[in-house]
């Protein structure tokens, strides 16, 4: 079923109508023809005299990933956004005329709009208006397959919708009580807000349970001393293809934005390291909605708690440096900037005179690997680089703790990193410790006085 809902035709509550999907395209009809997709007009504003069309091209690819048929693209140049329509008054009228001429269903704006700007454009164009954040949320809604993924997407959508509710002209606009209960009652808008607030609380409670389960599984891996390697990178950089090549998994991989949404974990055996958990995560993108980051907190926690991050980069992309910066910004937002990173320059098969190789830093530690996940070139070099990085990240030393520092000793036992323990005549704990460097740095932040105690 394709939704073709005009703004003026909406006469129901935004949350009561359960049969209406928030997606632009109903994902249950995956075999629909292109003519059944929503017809859209794309709007993009250049805020500098140098018109870089890469952002516009990426947004058009996002629209195609959302199963939208682009009828026309309208661009304009401004120094600052306009308060009422984001674009100028004349350009807004041009968009409205184009919508009427082409009989478009929706207007996609490649920027973040305020709720007021969205409503003003919808009123003028007489059709739905979706900004960049709304489009990304819609793609996530179509791609979510697991129960957790669906909960996360619904939570992000409701948080996005809660700031965009408007008063509907309906017969339920004012609810009144019976005898003895008469009064102003509750408006439909207030009802929508209350129901959304209740639903958000329910989703957060469910996701908290999922997060507890993930934390329990993570602690089990930590007790087993199994390191975790997490794949991160810009969307469509080839993470899932690399994941399948390393683990012989069957994760869906395609040349499209956000092809993979639900995280997948597989066991990988590496010489001198042993069993290792490899995690495939959702791709990042510029201006990733904050509601998505908060909703996917439990999923992204796999990245925060990882022993090593494999930052997959499309080296054939002309904007690879900007993509690296965008990924680093998201890593900072989820507080994973201190996790060790190994750069993976993928898709060297699309470049000339580039062979698989490893780049080392001044300390002779692998810093970057050049490979092609699609052709399988350089995968053995990647395994070798991971082996060197993980083996170098395991610290072995002796530690002496005072009798009153049993809390630290208990924490070390929780991490399952004490190889041997003796007690001195003064009651001190003499420990032989083997611990992951990342976990040790976390302990040093919590107990700074431990550093000089390390023998």
TrEMBL record:
Under the heading PROSITE patterns, the entry gives:
G_HFLX (PS51705)
Give the residues the record marks as binding Mg(2+): 240, 260
Cofactor annotation: Mg(2+)
Record localization: Cytoplasm
UniProt subunit comment: Monomer. Associates with the 50S ribosomal subunit.
| GO MF | GTP binding; GTPase activity; guanosine tetraphosphate binding; metal ion binding; ribosome binding
Q: What is this protein called?
A: GTPase HflX
The highest taxon in the source lineage is Bacteria
Please list the coiled coil stretches: 193-223
The gene behind this protein is: hflX
Q: Which GO terms describe its cellular component?
A: cytoplasm
UniProt cross-references to Pfam families, sorted A to Z: GTP-bdg_M, GTP-bdg_N, MMR_HSR1
Which InterPro entries does this UniProt record tie to the protein? EFG_III/V (IPR035647), G_HFLX_dom (IPR030394), GTP-bd (IPR006073), GTP-bd_M (IPR032305), GTPase_HflX (IPR016496), GTPase_HflX_N (IPR025121), GTPase_HflX_N_sf (IPR042108), P-loop_NTPase (IPR027417)
Keyword Coiled coil belongs to the record: yes
Residues forming the Hflx-type G domain are 227-394
Family of the protein in this entry: Belongs to the TRAFAC class OBG-HflX-like GTPase superfamily. HflX GTPase family.
- Summary of the function given for this chain in its UniProt record: GTPase that associates with the 50S ribosomal subunit and may have a role during protein synthesis or ribosome biogenesis.
User: Its principal location?
Assistant: cytoplasm
Q: Which residues bind GTP?
A: 233-240, 258-262, 280-283, 346-349, 372-374
Keyword set, alphabetical order: Coiled coil, Cytoplasm, GTP-binding, Magnesium, Metal-binding, Nucleotide-binding
Asked whether the keyword Magnesium is assigned, the reply is yes
């Amino acid at each position: 079923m394709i939704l073709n809902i005009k703004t003026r035709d909406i006469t129901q509550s935004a949350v009561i109508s359960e049969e209406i999907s928030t997606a632009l395209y109903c994902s249950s009809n995956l075999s629909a023809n292109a003519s059944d997709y929503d017809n859209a007009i794309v709007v993009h504003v250049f805020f500098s005299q140098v018109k870089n069309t890469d952002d516009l091209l990426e947004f058009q690819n996002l629209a195609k990933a959302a199963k939208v048929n682009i009828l026309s693209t309208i661009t304009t140049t401004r120094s600052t956004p306009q308060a009422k329509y984001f674009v100028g008054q004349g350009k807004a009228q041009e968009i409205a005329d184009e919508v009427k001429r082409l009989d478009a269903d929706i207007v996609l704006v490649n920027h973040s709009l305020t709720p007021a700007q969205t409503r003003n454009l919808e009123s003028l164009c007489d059709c739905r208006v979706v900004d960049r954040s709304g489009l990304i949320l819609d793609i996530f809604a179509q791609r979510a397959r697991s129960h957790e993924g669906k909960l996360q997407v619904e939570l992000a959508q409701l948080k996005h919708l809660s700031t965009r509710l408007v008063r509907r002209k309906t017969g339920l606009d004012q609810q009144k009580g019976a005898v003895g209960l008469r009064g102003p009652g509750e408006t439909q808008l207030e009802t929508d807000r209350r129901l959304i607030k209740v639903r958000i609380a329910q989703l957060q409670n469910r996701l908290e349970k999922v997060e507890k389960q993930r934390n329990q599984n993570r602690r089990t891996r930590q007790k087993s001393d199994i390191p975790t390697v997490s794949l991160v990178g810009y969307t469509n950089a080839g993470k899932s293809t690399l994941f399948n090549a390393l683990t012989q998994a069957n994760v869906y991989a395609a040349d499209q934005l956000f092809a993979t949404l639900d995280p997948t974990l597989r066991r990988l055996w590496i010489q001198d390291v042993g069993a290792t958990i490899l995690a495939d995560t959702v791709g990042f993108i510029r201006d990733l909605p904050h509601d998505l980051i908060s909703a996917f907190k439990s999923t992204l926690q796999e990245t925060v708690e990882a022993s090593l991050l494999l930052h997959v980069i499309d080296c054939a992309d002309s904007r690879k440096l900007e993509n690296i910066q965008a990924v680093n910004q998201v890593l900072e937002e989820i507080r994973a900037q201190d996790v060790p990173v190994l750069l993976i320059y993928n898709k060297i098969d699309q470049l000339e005179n580039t062979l698989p190789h490893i780049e080392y830093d001044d300390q002779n530690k692998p810093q970057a690997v050049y490979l092609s996940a699609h052709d399988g070139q350089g995968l053995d070099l990647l395994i070798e680089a991971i082996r060197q990085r993980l083996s170098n990240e395991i610290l072995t030393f002796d530690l002496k703790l005072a009798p009153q520092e049993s809390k630290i000793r208990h924490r070390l036992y929780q991490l399952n990193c004490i190889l041997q323990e003796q007690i001195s005549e003064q009651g001190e704990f003499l420990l032989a410790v083997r611990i992951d460097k990342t976990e040790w740095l976390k302990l040093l932040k919590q107990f700074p006085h431990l550093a000089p105690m390390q023998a």
